[in-house]
Request: fold
Amino acid sequence: MPLDRLVLIIVSVFVAAALTVYVGVLLSASAALPSLFITLIPILGLVAYVAVRIIRDRVNNDEDDHYDDIER
Reply:
């Protein structure tokens, strides 16, 4: 497995864990401010969509695999 792909996986897992905690905090805080949370749903959805598109493009892009042709 190329090093850049391994780093991408580790960063993706870390970001997913951080977003899970962040969404959990938002859900617990939404009991006090329900109208604020409703306005944040589209923004969080857009951020998640952009993040998924960036990661998918990065993993599927053959031009960025600089180290795949190096012999070991």
About this structure: The two ends are 12 Å apart (CA to CA). The chain has two helices and no strands. The chain has a mean pLDDT of 81. The first helix runs from residue 3 to 29.
